[in-house]
């Protein structure tokens, strides 16, 4: 009998993780292959950020395992980042006093990607390259945060609310670019996103978290067709999967 090899570049296997010994996320599993986008959805406090922090080694696991690029993830966050596992945090991580170009140069020193190719993905940043980041709009700052992460040439990119504070129109512009980059660079992406429909529009798979537990999981296409069920899971109107 032949078995299908596991081609996941990120595997999260039955993790429980939290703060001060109290679990915030329980029995969470997910896997993402190269070029795939997983949308991680859920209301405030559901455990999305906690899951991302655990996946990059920034929070110790209470149980379970995370494997990325063939190796178990441990607490050496810098090393994990150098191996190509990159988190774009929800506080954006851009230096406000520096110009766009200087922000990108700093990021390139860490990773070595091409600034020109980043400008090709985000032509607006080329126009703004001399502008101080503190004077960019929210959407432009998010673009820069994503561009900086791409310069580290990640194989696994975890994005915490890229669209925080952005208008749906700005998000509509940004997310398809992310899809195109994931396709081009065969990057595995975990995307935490509040705009459910926009996220399901570009993702391959999705997980809805509620109160730290998986409430719903499926292909993004399937969940787009079951939009009411997604909403029920999001607002805790259906049981957690591990309880059913
Ligand atoms: P949001 O959409 O509001 O960012 P989230 O889904 O990312 O929410 P988390 O930030 O992962 O949720 O939080 C999950 C739970 O863990 C919440 O109950 C939160 O209060 C708790 N929590 C988060 N950070 C800490 C911390 N540093 N110490 C203690 N509890 C925390």
CATH fold label of the largest domain: Rossmann fold
| CATH homologous superfamily grouping of the largest domain | P-loop containing nucleotide triphosphate hydrolases
Q: Provide the CATH top-level class of the largest domain.
A: Alpha Beta
How many domains? 2
How does the major sheet shape up? Answer: 6 strands, mixed
Q: What is the string of helix and strand elements?
A: EEEHEEHEHHHHEHEHEEHH
What spatial order of strands do you see in the largest sheet? 6-7-8-3-9-10
Q: How much helix, percentage-wise, in residues?
A: 25-40%
Mean pLDDT: 90
Q: Name the poorly predicted regions.
A: none
Number of helices: 10
- The Rg value, from CA coordinates, equals 18 Å
Bound molecules: adenosine-5'-triphosphate
The CATH architecture of the largest domain can be given as: 3-Layer(aba) Sandwich
| Large-scale geometry | globular
Our measurement of the CA-to-CA distance between the termini, rounded to an integer number of angstroms, reads: 32 Å
């Amino acid at each position: 009998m032949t078995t299908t090899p596991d081609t996941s570049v990120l595997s999260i296997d039955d993790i429980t993780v939290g703060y001060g010994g109290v679990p915030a996320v329980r029995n969470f599993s997910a896997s993402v292959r190269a070029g795939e986008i997983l949308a991680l959805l859920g209301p405030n406090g559901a455990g999305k950020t906690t899951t991302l922090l655990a996946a990059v080694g920034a929070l110790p696991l209470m149980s379970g395992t995370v494997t990325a690029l063939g190796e178990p993830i441990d607490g050496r966050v810098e090393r994990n980042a150098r191996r190509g596992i990159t988190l774009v945090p929800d506080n954006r991580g851009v230096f406000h006093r520096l110009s766009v170009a200087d922000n990108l140069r700093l990021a390139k020193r860490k990773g070595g990607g091409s600034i020109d190719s980043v400008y090709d993905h985000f032509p607006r940043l080329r126009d703004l390259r001399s502008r101080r980041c503190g004077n960019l709009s929210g959407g432009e700052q998010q673009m820069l945060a994503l561009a900086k992460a791409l310069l580290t040439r990640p194989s696994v990119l975890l994005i915490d609310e890229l669209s925080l504070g952005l208008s749906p129109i700005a998000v509509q512009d940004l997310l398809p670019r992310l899809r195109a980059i994931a396709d081009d660079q065969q990057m595995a992406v975990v995307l935490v996103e509040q705009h459910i429909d926009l996220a399901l529009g570009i993702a391959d798979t999705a997980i809805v978290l509620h109160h730290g537990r998986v409430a719903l999981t499926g292909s993004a296409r399937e969940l787009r067709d079951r939009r009411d069920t997604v909403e029920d899971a999001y607002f805790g109107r259906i049981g957690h999967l591990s309880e059913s």
